[in-house]
Amino acid sequence: MTHAAATDHLSPRRAALRGALLTALFALGACSAGSVATPPASNAFFAQLSQSGLTGRYDPTGFEAHQVRKILGQVCANRGNLINYVEQPADGGMAFSARCKGGSDVRFGTISVYRFGDNARITVPGYVEKWREAEVVRTISI
After folding, report:
1. Which of 15, 46, 57, 127 is 20 to 30 A removed from 85 (C-alpha atoms)?
2. 83: which strand partners?
């Protein structure tokens, strides 16, 4: 583990690199949707999981930023340890990017989130806790 990872402080050079990478991720995400982007549903969103973290888009009329952060934190190995969360308006919704401090429980794939009232149903694929490989569904209060 590097000193920067252990203290979660970034040098100006690393901070600039991270900013450039996040900008590139948002640009690639906008391009991958095709020529006509469909706005997200107000009561649901999806997040792509990869080695670099979580990315996705949600409808701000259905979710608030703090709720999305809480939901995404459920994917982290240490529940709620979401870091480097950033968002910006994109295609009628709010695009986000984040990472889990200490890693996540999942390998790769898409998590789906459905809101019903003050609760969210989170479906997590490829869950690896205790050697299980099947998806896991969690319901939390938001």
Report:
1. 127
2. 99
Return the amino acid letter for 82.
Answer: L
CA proximity to 133, closest of 122, 124, 141, 142: 124
Q: In whole angstroms, give the CA distance from residue 49 to residue 125.
A: 9
Dihedral sign, Cα of residue 18, residue 21, residue 26, residue 29 = negative
Residue boundaries of the structural domains of the chain: 39-141
* pLDDT > 70 fraction of the chain, expressed in percent and rounded: 63
Predicted confidence at residue 120, as pLDDT, reads 93
Local structure of residue 111 (DSSP, 8 states):
E
CA torsion sign for 90, 92, 94, 97 is negative
